[in-house]
Amino acid sequence: MNDRVPLPASLEQSAFFMPFSMNRQFKKSPRLMARAEGIYYYTPEGRKLIDGTSGLWCVNAGHCRKRIVEAVQKQVAELDFAPAFQMGHPLAFEFADRLAALAPGDLKRIFFTNSGSESVDTALKLALAYHRARGEGHRMRLIGRERGYHGVNFGGTAVGGIVGNRKIFGALVAGVDHLRHTHDLAKNAFSRGQPKHGAELADDLERLCALHDPSTIAAVIVEPVACSGGVLVPPVGYLERLREICDRHGILLIFDEVITAWGRLGKPFGGQHFGVLPDLMTTAKGITNGTVPMGAVFMRERIYEAFMTGPEMAIEMPHGYTYSSHPLACAAGLATLQVYEEEGLLTRAAELWPYWEEQAHALKGLPHVIDIRNIGLIAAIELAPRAGAPGARGLDVHVKAFESGAYIRVAADTIALAPPLIIGKSEIDQLFDIVRATLRATA
Ligand code: PXG
Ligand code: PLP
Q1: Which of 314, 342, 370 is the last residue of a domain?
Q2: Is ligand 1 within 6 A of the CB of residue 55?
Q3: Distance (Å, whole) CA 80 – CA 66
Q4: Are the CB atoms for 307 and 129 separated by under 8 Å?
Q5: Residue 307 burial (C-beta neighbours within 10 Å; 0-12, 13-18, 19+)
Q6: Same domain, 305 and 245
Q7: Ligand 1 pocket, 408 CB below 6 A?
Q8: Residue 318 C-alpha to ligand 2 middle, in angstroms?
Q9: Which of 18, 25, 313, 330 is deepest in the core (most CB within 10 A)?
C-alpha cells in the first residue's frame, strides 16, 4: 500500500473546529494520521506510530481488521439504513442477543445508542423513568463523582466531575451531587493494581444520603476505573462498598464501562474483574472496535420489566436516536465480537498484565514521575506539573512522543497508556522505550 497521502497545504485557516483540542496550537503544527493497521498508525509522510491508547481507548482488536472491514463493506451495500422506531432489521435483534449472552448476571436487556455520551444520558433517563414506573418518582437525584468523566451531553456533563469540562456550561442539570474522588497520592503512590487505602471513601455516599435523604436519590454513576480523569484505580473494597450502600437505600448503581468494557481489565466487562454487578452498564467504543460509532446500555431484567407493564399499545420508553441500532454499527459489532472471541481478546489483558505492570513500574525514578498506576492493560504515569503551568509538561510529552514514533494520550500531566489488546511483549517494550526516552528528554 502507498504510505504517502498528500498533506493539506496549511490547516491554519481550516473550517474544522476540532473537539477537545487546542485548535490554534494544532493547526500551526498538525499531528495527522493517514492510515492504520494492527497496533500502528501511519502519518501522511509514512512515519509509523505505535498506538499507545487504542485510538481513544476504542480500537481494542487493533486497526483495520479485515473481518470487521469486510462486514461493514458488505452491509453498506445491502441495507444502508433502517428506521429503528416502530420498525426493525434482523441484525439489531441478533446483535442485542449476542451482547446479552456475553453480559454478566442478569444485565440482559440492551438499549442501543451511538456513543458513550448517549449511553450515559440514556442510562440516567432509564434510572429516573424506572423509579417513576414503580411509584417512586420522588427519586430524582443523580450522584456522580469528582474527577469522573461521563461524556459531554447535558446529563453526563452534570454528573461528570472534571471541573474544566463543566465550569463554562452554566447550571447543567438540577438535582445532581458528587461523591469525593478516590485519588490519594500521599497514601497510595506507586500502587500496583488496586490501591490499598480508601475503601471508606465509598461512605461518602452515606453522607449524601443523610443530606438529601436516600428516598430522593435515583442513581449513582461511576466508572469502575476513572480513566479520563487520570486513571484512578478504585481502592480495594471500594466498589463493593458502594454496591452495598446502594442496595441498602434502593439506589440504582450505574457502571460507566465505556472504557473498561471489552476486555480492557482482562474480563469482558470491568465490573466482572471487581466481582460487582451494577444495575445498569453503559458501553460504547470497543463495542465496534471503534469502526462505526455505537453505544449500548445494558440493564438488569427487573428494570426492563418495570417498563413492560402498561398497555401493549403504548410506547414504553419515549427515547431513542435516529441511528440507534444502525445497520453498519450492528454489522461492525457482530464482526468485532467474532474477532474478540476467536482471538481470546476479552481475557488477553489478564495474561499480559504482569509483564505490562513490570514495564510500567520500571519507569519509576525518571524525571518528574510522581506516581505510576496500572490495572489490566492500562497504565498511567503521573508527572509533577510545571510551576504555574499545569498540563504544559503533559503536552510536551504528547508532542515529543509523536515525534519519536508513539501516539499516547495525556490527561493534564498524566500519561495514559492503553494499547490494543493484540499487542505483544516486544511491542510493549517498544512503547515503553519511547515513553522512557521522551521522559528523559522532557524538562
Ligand atoms: N463515559 C466514559 C467513562 C468515557 O470514558 C464517555 C462516557 C463518552 O463517550 P463518547 O463516545 O461520547 O466520547 C467516555 C469517553 C481520553 C478520552 O483520552 C476518553 C474518552 C473520550 C475521548 C478521550 O481520556 N472517553
Ligand atoms: N433535532 C431535530 C430537529 C430532529 O428532527 C432530530 C431527529 O429527528 C434530532 C434533533 C435528534 O437527532 P438524532 O436522532 O440523530 O439524535
Answers
A1: 342
A2: no
A3: 20
A4: yes
A5: middle
A6: yes
A7: no
A8: 13
A9: 330
Give the contacts of 211 (CB within 8 A, at least 6 positions apart): 177
CB-based pocket (< 6 A), ligand 2: 321-323
For residue 12, being part of any structural domain is answered with no
Residue with CA nearest ligand 1 atom 10: 116
With a threshold of 0.90, does the pTM exceed it?
yes
Per-residue pLDDT of the chain (443 residues; tens, 9 = 90+): 555 556 667 999 999 999 999 999 999 999 999 999 999 999 999 999 999 999 999 999 999 999 999 999 999 999 999 999 999 999 999 999 999 999 999 999 999 999 999 999 999 999 999 999 999 999 999 999 999 999 999 999 999 999 999 999 999 999 999 999 999 999 999 999 999 999 999 999 999 999 999 999 999 999 999 999 999 999 999 999 999 999 999 999 999 999 999 999 999 999 999 999 999 999 999 999 999 999 999 999 999 999 999 899 999 999 999 999 999 999 999 999 999 999 999 999 999 999 999 999 999 999 999 999 999 999 999 999 999 999 999 999 999 999 999 999 999 999 999 999 999 999 999 999 999 999 999 99
Indicate the residue type of 145.
Answer: R
Closest by Cα among 415, 287, 263, 285 to 353: 263
CATH number of the CATH domain containing 320? 3.40.640.10
User: Residue 120 belongs to what domain range?
Assistant: 69-342
Find the 287 Cα to ligand 2 centroid distance in Å. Answer: 23
Atom in ligand 1 nearest the alpha carbon of residue 256: 3
Q: Do residue 55 and residue 73 come from a single domain?
A: no
